[in-house]
Every structure is written in C-alpha cells, then in structure tokens.
Amino acid sequence: MALNYRLPMRLLRILAFTCCLQAWSLLGAAPLVPAELQLLAREGKERFEHGDYFAAERTYRKILAQAPNNLYAQDDLPAPQGSVSPGPPVMRVVDAPASSSSPGIPPAMQAQANEARQAFEKGDYRKAEGIYREILKTAPDNLSVLSNLGVVLFRQKKLKEAEDCFTKAIAIEPVDGFAHCTLGIVYYTQGKYDVAISELNKAIAVDGKNATAHNYLGVTWSQKGHQEQAQREFETAIALDPNYADADYNLAVLLATKSSPDMEKARQYYQQARKLGAEADPALERLMGQKGANNAPAKSLHPVVKFDKKRSGFGDFYTPQEMDWMRRYSLAP
After folding, report:
1. Are 103 and 111 in contact (CB under 8 A)?
2. How many CB atoms lie under 10 A from the CB of residue 66?
3. How far apart are CA 88 and CA 247, in angstroms?
4. Domain boundaries for CATH 1.25.40.10 within the chain
5. By the 8 A CB rule, do 213 and 182 touch?
6. Percent of the chain beyond pLDDT 90?
7. Exposure string for 144-176, b = 16+ CB within 10 A, e = fewer
C-alpha cells in the first residue's frame, strides 16, 4: 500500500508541541508529564532540538506507554496510517577484532581501525567517522573501510553520504554481497523501494543464502503492498537462518495484518521469535488474540517496533516504514 507522508505538517506539530512545553515551563506550570517520567521528557526534548525527530517521537511514545492519557505527550503524535512492521535493519562492522589482523585493512592502519571499531561500539559515531576518513586518505579504495564508514554514516542519519560510500564500494568490488545488501537497506530507508529491491536481489545473486537480504526484500515488498512476495521472502529468510528472530517477528506481523489475516500462524511465528530472544509486544499479542468483524484487528491498539540491538546497527533510528507501523493504530483507550 502506498502511503502519503506529511512530514512538513508533522514537524510543524512537533515544533508547536515543543514551544507549548517550553511556554508552560516558563510560566511555572505543573509538570507536563509525571515526575517519574521527567527524564524521558527531557530526553525527547533534547532529541528534538538535535533534529532527531524520529527518536524524539519514540521517546514520547515511551512516556505514553506508562501515561497513556497524558495530553502533552499525545499532542505530538500523528494520525494512524496503515502498513506492516519492517523490523530493524541489520548491519555489521566489518573490521576484524583487535586481537587479529584484517586482510582488508593495511597493517599499519590496523590500530586506527581497531580504535574506530571501539568508538563505534561505544556509540561515538563522529569519532569513528573521523578515523575512517583518515584511513581513506591513505587507502581511498579500501573496501572494508568504505563499508564501515557507510555504516557509521547511516548511524548518524547521513543517508546520502552512506549511499555514496556503498556505491563506491560496489564500483571497486561489483560482487560484494554485503555492500549490495546494505545499499539496498539504505535505499529502502530513503523510501526508494524499486532500487532497494534491485540491490537486495543483487546481494542474493552473489549469495543466495543471505538471510538478511531476503528479510529486507520481504520488508520492501510488503511496503509496496505485495504481501505474497513479502511472505515468501520472510519464509526464505527463516529457512536459511532458523535463529533469525527478526524474520519470524516480521512474518508474524505480516500474517496478522494482511488483508486475509492468519492469526494462528501469526501466533506460531511470534512465539518462535520470542523463543529466539525477541522482546514481548503486548499490543501485537492483543492484535493476534482479538478480531473484530471479518477478522479486522481491534482499533485501539498501538504496536511498537521491537529492536534486537545485538543484530541491529541502526540503534534508535526509525525508518519511514517503522513510523508507518507505529501509525497503524491510534492511542485511544
């Protein structure tokens, strides 16, 4: 299903909300959120001020999970729209561990690469970016460093720069499955679904056992409204990697929300995802347990995308598709 985004209006609403919050604070009004949630409120405000609107919305939703009737947190949220959950994109850093030598990085620069990897793991993406750029001054065509820089840039939401890194990496090595797969995820995140499908298919052509590529190909097909193709890709990802909790979760969501829901199978895949370590999703559990007329889901649910941070390199960043999933249901009690 194609969706119409209203980001300018949404950002205006966020700005209006934040201005109201600041005005109330200056006037000495009572706390806008419960005292025990003030830390989260400050976090949301800081993320907004840094331009990270998706992360700010996620923070306000955390507040609403504990204070669902809080007017000030609700005022920021957009009206629900329809989609399915894509799950968290999976990326990796391709350096070797500090205890070994990576053939893809010049030995003289291995210490720098290790330092960049450690900065990445600590969430210091700006430092990691700087180190990788320094290495590229000496080794501009290094595939591993270009790939790592692309990942770091993505973590900082520098999507066009990340795209350029992986495009250059593919020009150097046209059959690098990781670069094709990750570029596909970058395109997908930008809403460029057709080229995302093309890159993900190229990744699969290089390595047909790439479960990650199949998973995100399923995500992209679902975004374009091709439910059967999406289901096949999720099933393939699970067959290739039986421990891929994200693919089980995605398939559960697809089966529960498609035009002809199959709640029994959705529950089976969801339970398998939980066994593999996926976090519980009470709203999705209610969705699978409650059906209205013609198997329509209950209207007052608010599913939230779950992140498996051990697999995900994207941290708190919400893709447009993840935002669609959160918009699917209203917050009305």
Report:
1. no
2. 13
3. 10
4. 107-327
5. no
6. 43
7. bbbbbbbbbbbbebbeebbbbbbebbbeeeeeb
CA distance 45 to 57: 10
Considering only CA atoms, which of 7, 313, 308 is closest in space to residue 154? 313
Q: What is the pLDDT of residue 86?
A: 44
Alpha carbons 186 and 196: distance in angstroms, whole number:
8
DSSP letters spanning 140-167: TT-HHHHHHHHHHHHHTT-HHHHHHHHH
**CATH number of 107-327: 3.30.750.24, 3.30.2350.10, 1.25.40.10, 3.30.365.10?**
1.25.40.10
pLDDT tens-digit map of 5-24: 334 444 445 545 555 544 44
Could you give the C-alpha distances from 141 to 31, 88, 92, in angstroms and in order?
A: 54, 29, 19
* pLDDT value at residue 125: 92
pTM of the model: 0.61
Task: Using alpha carbons, list the distances in angstroms from residue 304 to 1, 214, 253, 257, 277.
Answer: 20, 23, 11, 14, 16
Q: Which of 176, 132, 177 is nearest to 152 (CA)?
A: 132
CA R_g for the chain: 21
Amino acid at 249: Y
Which 8-state DSSP code applies to residue 85? -
| Token pair for 288 | 């699978």
Which tokens belong to 299?
A: 């209207």
In the chain, the amino acid numbered 81 is: Q
